[in-house]
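Q: Structure for this?
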Amino acid sequence: MSIEKLRWMVFASLMAALTAVGAYIHVPIGPVPIVLSTLFVILSGLLLGSRWGLASMGLYLLVGAIGIPVFAGGKGGFAHFFGPTGGYLLGYVLAAWVTGFISERSYGLLILDIFAVLIGSLAIYGLGVPWLKIVTQMSWPKTLMVGMVPFLIGDAVKASVAIILARAIRPILKRQLTNE
Amino acid sequence: MARIALHYFPGNSPLHRWDARCKFFGLLVITATLLQSKTPWLIFDSILLMGLLILSRLPLRQFFRDFWIWAIFLFALFLFQAFFTPGRRMSAIPWISVSQDGLRLGSFTCWRLGLILGYAVLFTAVTRPREIQDTLIWLLKPVPFLPERRIGLMVSLTLRFFSIILDRAEEVRLAHRARLGDQNKNPFRRAKFLALPLLRRSFSRAEDVTLALAARGFRDDLPLQLPKMPFSHLVPLLILPGFAAIIWWFRL
């Protein structure tokens, strides 16, 4: 196996571990808690690109599914995918892929990075909110009030931090990838 | 927390010798039972965890010492639920705005999370990373189009990085506080001075791991060689369905 592929595998594992650590910094405000994980979901897309970002989040879900406590608030187990937050967890995979897909084509332009982060953050809700509605049987307005509105300001802060971090870390990654 | 917790701790206890595949299925079943909101299950899981901890012969004092950050986290969660869950106020302590429902919900959540953490710590302490990797490869092998060996390696790396990041985060936080960085309330500046060193160190560590794997000639096309699972190792797994049958029978 080439060292480049090994490096991407290790980086994807690192981002999955960072997402797991982020899940411990959470505020339980209802059926869906505020977590720092989403910052690392977006960051994995920005740093690793679509393919490895997706792999990284898939790995995070697998580690959680086997019972290791890496989901929000130290939870773990396959059954969480069928709970109210299951859609958000699957949304992580889509968000990392979408963010990575746009970011790969941004050529370092800040405006495109912002667009990538915006679409990536919305992708989490794209799967999370309908799933929350199905599981909890709430009306659409109530689901949006419980599962989306309280997080928007926090998401804006997390997205901004993700862009700052990604732009600071990218040169280091680039140096590591070219110093073979 | 991360000094010992979620690391393998060498030993020769029955739990260390127990087949990793059985341990893995045991963990899956236990985490599924912990999602039940029935007290008999939580009592059973707590007694079982205590029994397994004694059986594991691990240095429990060290483990409990490392558990303090999780204890703070669980206590914060308990307080949050006790104060912010709507319900009838406690008549004994009317000057504190905690509800009976909040106290019950908070205790229940913390009890359950404490058990999930306890079982995960125990599982990683008595199972070699290599065994976890091999078990995952064994499980994923029947699934077509999945690179099971790569996934196995990545899962074991994620678990390793998880504890390394917690260690590094603590170091960076202490260094930041020593420079009076905690006085700054701006979230962007805090992110810059806390998260950036942590990410830099983590990626540097990841690079070292990559080079070490490459130097050892990691290959993903080697055949998996696992010993046959002895029948005696399956027996402990039968306890759980047995207990489930008792709970179902008595409708507890």
